[in-house]
Amino acid sequence: MAKKLAVIGAGLMGSGIAQVSAQAGWDVVLRDVTDEALARGKGGIEASYEKFVAKGKLAASDAEQALARITTTTDLEATAEADIVVEAVFERIDVKREIFQTLDKLVKDEAVLASNTSAIPITKIAAATSRPERVVGAHFFSPVPMMQLCELVRGYKTSDETLATAREFAESVGKTCVVVNRDVAGFVTTRLISALVVEATKLYESGVASAEDIDTACKLGFGHAMGPLATADLTGIDILMHATDNIYTESQDEKFAPPEIMRRMVDAGDIGRKSGQGFYTH
Ligand SMILES: NC(=O)c1ccc[n+]([C@@H]2O[C@H](COP(=O)([O-])OP(=O)(O)OC[C@H]3O[C@@H](n4cnc5c(N)ncnc54)[C@H](O)[C@@H]3O)[C@@H](O)[C@H]2O)c1
């Protein structure tokens, strides 16, 4: 099995993916554009390993060995030997396409190129390369060391072999995969949370129930860990509205049209926890 991984982007997601992969025995090259970003990413990994060690969930020697398996670099060429590359840079299609175009020239032909995008169609990223059949979505969840899900997304040309390699990788780092067979906007997870948040917002907007009661209904009625409106506040109402609007634009399905109150909350800056006010006061 392939054991050399390159991770592009040492932010929240990239460092998390590097962390779980190194712990699972992968040799990881972690690449970002500045030494500061790399230091922050590696520092976060170290601190997280320390927490697991303190809780008795990881042996100190294993943490030390895992950390030694992570090399940081600002040089994209250092990824050339990778068997799998996972890209986790900003959610901007121009940035991602440029990276994939360069990776395509650098990385060996048989390597698989994966993107951790939450919403950009994999087909659009894959089209920047000469190997769209070896490009796949590998959508990890935050925080990566804690969240078990990896949503694997087939682009229009992704091969079965590529999907199998991505699955093997994600499972080797302890994740459970779900496969999105068609490259639809929002994949499976963002479509589900968007539909739920839109309907919860409509119920709230029309005065059918309070935010607290809508969330309590989902928690106690369906066993959700968190209600949809509290989730929207945590994620950022602006971010969720943007995601929902994207799905609506692509699918023209009315159920994803952001309700008016959601747009006004964003206009007013009431975007959830980060602003102190959303569906709840924080
Ligand atoms: N944050 C989440 O909860 C979450 C969950 C799932 C998926 N995602 C997706 O993961 C990706 C990364 O998100 P994040 O939250 O880690 O972002 P982040 O802002 O924490 O990190 C992005 C990193 O990419 C780096 N970067 C930018 N251009 C680069 C380049 N050309 N080469 C190398 N590094 C570069 C930045 O310096 C930064 O360190 C996005 O596509 C996002 O949609 C995020």
Automatic annotation (TrEMBL):
<dbReference type="Pfam" id="PF02737">
    <property type="entry name" value="3HCDH_N"/>
</dbReference>
<dbReference type="Pfam" id="PF00725">
    <property type="entry name" value="3HCDH"/>
</dbReference>
<dbReference type="InterPro" id="IPR006176">
    <property type="entry name" value="3-OHacyl-CoA_DH_NAD-bd"/>
</dbReference>
<feature type="domain" description="3-hydroxyacyl-CoA dehydrogenase C-terminal">
    <location>
        <begin position="186"/>
        <end position="281"/>
    </location>
</feature>
<dbReference type="InterPro" id="IPR013328">
    <property type="entry name" value="6PGD_dom2"/>
</dbReference>
<comment type="similarity">
    <text>Belongs to the 3-hydroxyacyl-CoA dehydrogenase family.</text>
</comment>
<keyword id="KW-0560">Oxidoreductase</keyword>
<dbReference type="InterPro" id="IPR008927">
    <property type="entry name" value="6-PGluconate_DH-like_C_sf"/>
</dbReference>
<protein>
    <submittedName>
        <fullName>3-hydroxybutyryl-CoA dehydrogenase</fullName>
    </submittedName>
</protein>
<feature type="domain" description="3-hydroxyacyl-CoA dehydrogenase NAD binding">
    <location>
        <begin position="4"/>
        <end position="183"/>
    </location>
</feature>
<dbReference type="InterPro" id="IPR036291">
    <property type="entry name" value="NAD(P)-bd_dom_sf"/>
</dbReference>
<dbReference type="InterPro" id="IPR006180">
    <property type="entry name" value="3-OHacyl-CoA_DH_CS"/>
</dbReference>
<dbReference type="InterPro" id="IPR022694">
    <property type="entry name" value="3-OHacyl-CoA_DH"/>
</dbReference>
<dbReference type="InterPro" id="IPR006108">
    <property type="entry name" value="3HC_DH_C"/>
</dbReference>
<comment type="pathway">
    <text>Lipid metabolism; butanoate metabolism.</text>
</comment>
